[in-house]
Amino acid sequence: MYNVLLVSIASFFDSTGEIPFMFKRAGCQVDVFCNETSWLLSNRYHDNWIKSSEDHETFKDQLLKLIDEKPDHYNWIVPLEDITIKLMNDAILSEDIFKKILPINKIENRDLLSSKAGLSSVCQKYGITTPRFVNYSDVNDTEVIKQKLDFPILLKEDFSFSGIGIQYCEDESELQGCLDKVQVKTNLVLQEFIKGEDIGLEALFRDGELITYNCGEVLSYMYDKFSFTTRRKYYQNEEIAALLRVLGKSVGLNGFASIQYIYHPGRKLYYLIEVDARTNSWMPYSRFTGHDFSDGIRRIINNQLAYIPTGTTKPDDWVEVAIFDRDIRRCFKRKDYKGLLRWIFNIDGYWKFIPMYDSKIISRISRKIMKDFLKIKNSA
After folding, report:
1. Cis peptide before 152 (omega within 30 of 0)
2. What residues have CB less than 8 Å from 47, skipping those under 6 apart?
3. CA-based Rg of the chain, rounded to a whole angstrom?
4. Cβ neighbours, 10 Å, residue 160
5. Which residues form the signal peptide (predicted)?
6. What share of the chain is helix, strand, coil (3-state, %, to 5)?
7. Cα(347)–Cα(351) distance, integer angstroms
8. What are the pLDDT digits (tens) for 332-368?
9. 263: part of which helix (H) or strand (E)?
10. Phi, psi of 347 (to 5 degrees)
11. How far apart are CA 324 and CA 220, in angstroms?
């Protein structure tokens, strides 16, 4: 049996809820390490629950103790969100333990993990195309910043996710006002804003080798283009796959990654914007795309690590996918009645994206949607 330990401290993160299902479909024994309020327990597809503390220091010590007591029990330990990854990355000194827990196998690139500044530096180190940037901690003179960067720019707090901690600055006159709004200026990244096509990606790597991936054209955002997405069209692209293979080998990616590129059609360049070395909400829905992450997990279990080219999908064959609770809440918030009709009348087969396979997850999702709906109604 292939034993997997899924690890989460951020109980509010709903993206973990369907991840056990993805591993279970691959034939894994699935243990979860989390507290009692975690979304990681909101499913029927985990085998054992190992209760953790909500306190970060205690959580870290409990996890390290578990691994020390059972050093060979788990074939794969998967931290599921940025908070957990940052906590363990900050704590671990041993290279062996680092490689056992964290999703890259080159400890010298650990700055990449859960850090906007770290990603920019790693891209610079390996010659990976990314927008021009400065680290505000190194260059805190606004006049120097104006000389180094072309506007518009983005201000990115070093540890941030789901669009929180990112500001758009249109021109030089807005810069000081934007800086004044920043909560944490340590390692603040100021990065040129690239106007182009947003590409959301999920990928799975083992020892730097690309196992499988999906590219997604963004159809809907929850709020603005810096927030999370609710609908995508998925496809394969060999040019992007080549970039992913270079990225994986350079950095030493060793697990799941949620990645963002922006394609600039005039320059014909793909700019790497984001690499979060963790799972996300879209990965369990890969089963609808023809490139299922459960199949990728099986390949890892069977040590079939050679990259298998999949070609480039014709636009007519791209596959539309939506996340039910995200998109239905977006429809309420944005008063997108056409979008609501998709869900009500099963337009384009949208009902298949409702996770009715698991009464536990659909029950918690339904409560969340109702709570959000009542909040919107009361604020109207």
Report:
1. yes
2. 29, 30, 31
3. 21
4. 18
5. none
6. 40, 25, 35
7. 8
8. 999 999 999 999 999 999 999 999 999 999 999 999 9
9. strand 256-264
10. -65, 135
11. 12
Give the pairing of strands 166-169 and 153-156: antiparallel
Distance of CA 269 to the CA centre of its chain: 22
Tokens for 1? Answer: 């049996």
List the strands of the sheet with 269-276, edge to edge.
Answer: 269-276, 256-264, 197-206, 209-221, 229-235, 319-322
298: which 2 tokens? 């099986």
Q: Which domains does the chain have, with CATH numbers?
A: 3-102 (3.40.50.20), 132-192 (3.30.1490.20), 197-322 (3.30.470.20)
N-to-C CA span, the chain: 53
pTM: 0.94
Single out the residue of 246, 170, 173 nearest to residue 205, CA to CA.
Answer: 246
DSSP conformation letters of 163-218: TTTEEEE-SGGGHHHHHHH-S--TT-EEEEPPPSEEEEEEEEEETTEEEEEEEEEE
pLDDT at 219: 96
Q: What is the DSSP letter of 244?
A: H
Helices 238-251 + 116-126 axis angle, to 10: 100
Q: C-alpha distances in angstroms, 133 versus 167, 178, 321?
A: 14, 16, 33
Token pair of 328 as six digits: 């239905």
Helices (H) and strands (E) counted in the chain, each on its own, are 12, 14
